[in-house]
Structure formats: C-alpha cells, structure tokens
Amino acid sequence: MASSTDRARPPLDPAAEELIDRFGRGQLRALARVITLVENETPGYRRLLARLYRKTGRARKIGITGATGAGKSTLVDELTKRLSSRGRSVGIVAVDPTSPFTGGALLGDRVRMQDVGLLKDVYIRSMATRGSLGGLARATREVSIVLDAFGKDVVLVESVGVGQVALDIAEIADTTVVVLVPESGDSVQAMKAGLMEIADIFVINKSDLIGADRLELELNNHLELQRQRDGWDYPVVKTQARSGEGIDELLEQIDRQEEYLARTGYLEKKRADLVRAEILQLLSETVTGKVRQRLEERGDLDTAVADILKGHRNPYQVVDQLLERVEGAGPNG
Amino acid sequence: MASSTDRARPPLDPAAEELIDRFGRGQLRALARVITLVENETPGYRRLLARLYRKTGRARKIGITGATGAGKSTLVDELTKRLSSRGRSVGIVAVDPTSPFTGGALLGDRVRMQDVGLLKDVYIRSMATRGSLGGLARATREVSIVLDAFGKDVVLVESVGVGQVALDIAEIADTTVVVLVPESGDSVQAMKAGLMEIADIFVINKSDLIGADRLELELNNHLELQRQRDGWDYPVVKTQARSGEGIDELLEQIDRQEEYLARTGYLEKKRADLVRAEILQLLSETVTGKVRQRLEERGDLDTAVADILKGHRNPYQVVDQLLERVEGAGPNG
Fold this sequence. Notes:
Two copies of one chain form a homodimer.
Chain A: H1 4-8, H2 14-24, H3 28-39, H4 45-53, E1 60-66, H5 72-85, E2 90-95, H6 99-102, H7 105-113, E3 122-127, H8 133-150, E4 154-160, H9 163-172, E5 175-180, H10 186-192, H11 195-198, E6 201-204, H12 212-230, E7 236-238, H13 247-264, H14 266-298, H15 300-309, H16 315-328
Helix pairs in contact in A: 2-3, 3-8, 5-13, 8-9
C-alpha cells in the first residue's frame, strides 16, 4: 500500500501540518492542542506523534510518586521553581488514577496554575482519569514524549503510587523519586506496593513530624543490601516541601543520579526498555483492533456470544476457533 | 492440531482432573486452589476454566461499589448474614485496587473471616492488587465464574469505586449497588467517577450523619430523567450498616431489580455484553502473546529497539512494519 518513504513521513492533512509547524515554533496553544489530541486518542494522533518522535530524547524525565497527601504537588512545584530559576524549561504531567473519588485535584490545579504555571517556560498538564488505567499510563508516556519534543529540558511526572500504575509510570522516568511521610507503616506500605524496587531516590517529606527519624532508619536498614549490590547509594533526603527545606539537596541528588546513569550505561538500558514496552503496547492495540474489526464485520462475534449463552461453547474454545478462522483467511481476508 | 472434540473437552493432566473432581464435590480446599491458579494465571488455568464454564450461569451476581471508608465491607457482611440465614450460599470477592497504599485490608480481612467467613456456605476472597489493574478486572471476572461454577447462589463483588476498575467490575455484576456517605460532595464525586451510570440501586450509608437528607435530595433530583427514561426507579436506600438498619430494605430492592431484569430481558442483554467483553479480552491477550513470541524468536524486536534509539525509525513505523512481516509470513511462519 504505502511505500517505505511514505511511511517515514506519513502524510498529514494541511491542518495537522500547520499544527506541527506552530508546535515547532514553540506556540503554547499548539502544545496544548497536541496533548489533547493524544490524550483523547483522536484519529490520526499516532501519525502526529510519529512526526514529533524525531525531536525527542533530549528531556530529562523525573518521576515523583507517593501516596495521596504525601505532599508530591508541593514538592514538584518547589523543584520546578528552582529549575526554572536556573533557566531550565519544565513540563509537569500530574497523574492521579484515584482522583474520581479523592477529588480536590481540580481546585488544587487552579491554584498551581497561578503559581508555578505562570513561570516562564513551565507547562503543567493534569491527566484525566476517564478511560482505562492502562490507557492512563499510555497517555502519560505519550504526553511526556510530546513535552520532550516541544523542547522541555525537564519533564516531571507526578503520580499517586497505586499498584501497577505506579510501576508503569516509573518505566517512563529516567529517575524515580518515591515520597514518603512519617506516618505509621508508610515504609511497610511502600514495600508492599513495590515502590522500593522502583525508587532511585527516597524523600521523607514533612520531616518535621514525629517518626521521621524512625522512617529514615527503617529505609536505611532496608536499603543496605541494595546499596552494596548496585553501586548506587539510594539516598534518603529529608524535606519540608512547604518551607522549601531540603529541596536543594534533592536536586543535587537528582543530578548525581543523572551522572550515575550516564556513567554506568544504565540510562541507555532504561530507554531501550521503555522503547521495547512502547512497541509491544502499540502492537497489542493494533493487532487487537484489527482482529476485532474483522470479527465484527463477519458477525462471527455475535454468533459466538449466542453459542456461549446457550451453553454450546465456552469463551476459551471460541477464541481458539475465531483466531484459526482469521489467520486461515490470510492477512487481507 | 486438536480435533473439535478435543477442544470441547481439553485434555487435563491427572492432578487437574482430580482437582476438578474435588471441586465438583464441593470441597473448599479445591475451590481455594482453583481460585489461586486463576488469580496467578498459572499455565493451564484457562483449560481449567473452560471445563468449569459449563456449570456457570446460575449465580446472582451483585456488585457493591463506593469510596474507601463508605462502609462497603460492613454492608456486604450484613447482606451476607441475611442471605445465609435464608439458606442461600454466598461467595464474596473483595477488590481494592488502591490497597497497596491504603493498607489495613489484611487486618480487616482477618476479622471478617472470623465473622461471616465462619458462616456455613459463605466463602470470602480478597483479590491481590499486584499485577496490572486490567488484570485485576480479569481476575475478578474469572473468580466470579469459579464461584458461580462452585454452586454459590449469590456472588457479591465488593470494590472501591476508582475510575475504570469500577466500570469494568460493574460489567461483571447483574446488579450494581453504589454506596455513598453523607459527606460534602460525595454525589458530585460519584457523578464525576461515572458511578451514576453504573448504579442500579443507591445506598446512603451512615445515614444518621448530617447531610444524609441533602444527599438523598441531590440523588433524587439527578435521577429524575433516568427514572422516566428507563422504567426502573433507581431506588435510594438509607442504611446504617453497623446497626443493620436498612439492610432488609436493600435486599428487597435487590430482589425487585432481579424481577425487573428478568421481565425486561435486560439480564440477557447484560450477560451477552459480558460474554462479548470476555471474548475480546481473551482474544487480545492471545493474539498479542503470539505476535510477541514470534517477534522475539526472530530478534526483530531487538533490531527495532536499536533503530529507534538511533533515531532511524519511530515506534509507529516499526509496528506497521513488524505486523506486515508477521502477517506476510502466514499463520505458522
């Protein structure tokens, strides 16, 4: 169908070409528009991303994850102010997979927009939680790509540390900062949630609260083996995000981690893993979409549903049989 | 490879045959074992499920969803006690996608096990949150199938109402009960979370708290159009789960909803939708697994990753090209 030259530069309609042009010239409204298209999976968004992809790979991606109420937003805002004052442009992606019920995010967002959101070269985007949670990780990854392509020096991905979503989002970041607070059992919860495995740097926020020293001790004990094994010291930084205390040290540790990643070749490996995950996800979406479409066109799916409800077949047989039929018909059948 | 008779009765190893036999004779340890195999996606679990599938379709499946702290567990326990005293066997599947951080679930579980868990013919299972959130919905659906096949009259699926997980789990249930509490903005949150669309029955739990009447009013206002449209009155039941108040009325409404579902043919439609979703999910998993395996065998994936990192191709081109190659090679290539 399409020659390989076509594919290297997929044709876009004139409106999309103009959007890319404005995006390339650094227009904020074009950035916002592209992000919306990506978030909504508007038809054609993949070709748009394919075009932007060549401009990526430059941004430093930092994930900030932790429980609701740990003070992630304040921490991210303080980091942003310091980065901005050093002349670095920042993109923030804020993700809260639990927000439909925890609420409040929208109000908080408005306050943020009028604080760090007004700084030069800072762009904030909150990810909506409608749609699937797998979709949320996809959207976060792709919005990070967009911010990278837009030329942001740093992309901060802020997310609530809930199960698989936290792990998926950690995959996106070069460096993952896990934020804990001195509350009973927070280190135990972090371990159970698998956050110990994804953290490169730990933050004990609200470190003026009782229990901060004990939490630090617990973390240090737990990290002993990991530190010996990896040649990285998994620093534990105490902060009080509200007063700005400890933020400079956190930035220092983030820079140290960057050097470590570059020196050990680990950054390359991380990025290769991300690209691999990216390909597999795209592949899965594409293949499933195609198979589904074929089955629906032929009415095979409806027949199968009816058979199962009558008890004549079960879904596991049906899937084997459907696949055989689709494959047997060849790629264009 | 396998004839269609083989497929109708897939061969299982002797241990699995024995497990199915003990399961069929109602042994609790066999039930627990089957659920664990399903939850862990232990190789061969699908063939096991395929065998159990023929015994399903009898259980009444009720979803109970709402925010953390709304009192869902207490409500489910009270419902269970009443159902049990009426001689109906009950299976409970408790799902909390946020639990790695909210914690506490394990302790709560232990208390429950020694309360309703000791009732005759009651079985409780909490779903682990490790693994993907999409996987959680799959596991919940499949564990419901297992409990149905085991002969439970009622399967109660209790879940935290978070985004897509809540919607996926609502799909499993014949009837969905949304539990709210009289707290500022709870109805607004429910609307934002899409819970208004999945609820068949509303519960205002902790109805002795201030704000219960206002919440009821808000709900009734919001439900006006829906009630006229659907010929179902979307009842709002006030309960105090701890004292047991309102639970009998809730059970009555659940029975009324069952009659409504049967009378209107809506139950059949719901179950057809579920089977359809089930097939598509199985299909997606199977196809993706196959394609991935082929690509890995040939090393195509590694080449693609390297190309992308060098900036020679982008993931969107790569996926198109990989698929062309896999399809071109034919079903057995």
